[in-house]
Amino acid sequence: MIDNLIEVKGVTKSFGSYLAVDNLSMVVRRGEIVVLLGQTGAGKSTVLNLIMGTTSPNSGSVRVAGFDPHDSFKALKGRLSVSFQTDRLLPWRTAVENAELGLLILGVSKPDARRRAKEWLARVRLDGADDKYVHELSGGMRQRVSLARALAIDPEIVFLDESFSQLDHVTSGTLRRDFYQIARELGKTCVLITHRIDDALEMADRAIVLSQPAKIALEVHIDDAARADPARIAELHAQIAAAMGGEESGS
Amino acid sequence: MSVADNMAVSVNSNPPPRAAAPADQLVKPLAAVVRPQRNPENRRDLFATAVVVIVMLIAMEITSRYVPDYIMPSPVTVWAAARELFFADPYHVGVTLIRLTAAVAVAMSLGVLIGLAMGTVRWIRPYLKAIILIDTGIPALSWMLIAVFWFKNPETRIFFILLVILLPFYALNVYEGVRALPKDLVDMIESFRPSRWQVLRYLILPHIVPYIFLTTKSVIGYAIRMVIFAELVASAVGIGARMNLAQSTFRIDQVLAWTFFLVILNLVLQAAVNAVEKVTLRWRAEAVVR
């Protein structure tokens, strides 16, 4: 079994004359929760796209579960999933139909997919909303459906691309804690992309701050002992904020 | 066993435990808030239509008293002609309706296929676009005359005329529908690494359904006018042919009666499409603009 689920080695990516990622190297180990932090335009989403295989690097290499995610795009079917900044639910499908989408794409039978989707909606505290259409759900509920859809396929790696950033503070905090509990319980490998330092301090095993263009400006390990120590948390907060150019947000 | 198959097995073998706190309390009040409400616009529209119809009937009645019958018969005369035609010639209404339905159904099917091909197959797009654009530039009258030269069978003529006239509407609107697919949704579904067929089935086809309804509602009135023209030029049966006969026998009351049937036919078909649309697109939130 591969221990380093994601390996990024000396990756550079540019779009025309714009350099988005500059010689970036990083590793994400199995079961780890890594938070990628950076200001807007730091290249966080480009890094995500490189790892997802939706774009390829100009130089360097990306390996996900031993595969090149771009060249072996289909080989990673069912092994990765993403929860995006906006819920990206299909409006013509109900909550449960949205949650089962990934399972159906994986070829799971309809009844089985429906059963699993319902279980996951209950797991993200949305039982009772199975048959609601998207316009009948609040923003927080939609994001919960989006999480259920991402987790229902039982992926090895879950990516959260600013998934909590468009929600109000209370909803965002609740959802973040729910997700953290599920991810820990199932031992999921997670990569969170965010500009909120709070997300990193609350959830990450490791926080990586990207400067612009994307290269590592700071890498800090955060454990439960640090989380329980307000002074240590304040120190980490200040370190990360400084690495982000003093423009921390979301506290 | 493929990776996907492996995943399918692992997915089924690991059901997550249920959460302790259901969200029922959160959901119920929300459902109450979004309960669909009757649109007061509908009642106002109905009232306005009734007023316009009554004013037109009064104008007809007044005019009929001052001009000869072959210029403007009274509404009572037209109503009598309509009753007579309805009981004597229902066959012609049926023929026109069948022609219309068949042509719209085939134009819809082919138009959707062409629109999808234009939207999803890059190399074929410019060729299909060129064909459709040339088609839209050819006047309906040209197609009618061409059909008379090309086909002997009246049914084939009428079907051909309607098909070539209606098909571009569906093709272009479906193509626009595919182009209007939100990139966010495309990226979302691509993140699951689906096959092309799965993208089509789960994303593109449901997305273009409103465009198909919109096109159908837009072309019904036009299609009725075209079928009448086509019947007038190319057939001995159907409402268009009967209107031709009524015109040649100076029966303006019958021309108006057939016109009355066509207006009713248009309203009935529009209502039918609206009803099907309402059920099919029940997922769509109905916005009422103040």
TrEMBL record, chain A:
Entry keyword Lipid metabolism: no
SUPFAM superfamilies according to UniProt: P-loop containing nucleoside triphosphate hydrolases
Pfam families according to UniProt: ABC_tran
Zinc among keywords: no
Alphabetical keyword list: ATP-binding, Nucleotide-binding, Transport
Residue span, ABC transporter domain: 6-237
GO molecular function, one term: ATP binding
Family: Belongs to the ABC transporter superfamily.
PANTHER family according to UniProt: ALIPHATIC SULFONATES IMPORT ATP-BINDING PROTEIN SSUB 2, TAURINE IMPORT ATP-BINDING PROTEIN-RELATED
Cited function: Involved in beta-(1-->2)glucan export. Transmembrane domains (TMD) form a pore in the inner membrane and the ATP-binding domain (NBD) is responsible for energy generation.
Protein name according to UniProt: NitT/TauT family transport system ATP-binding protein
Species for this entry: Rhodopseudomonas rhenobacensis
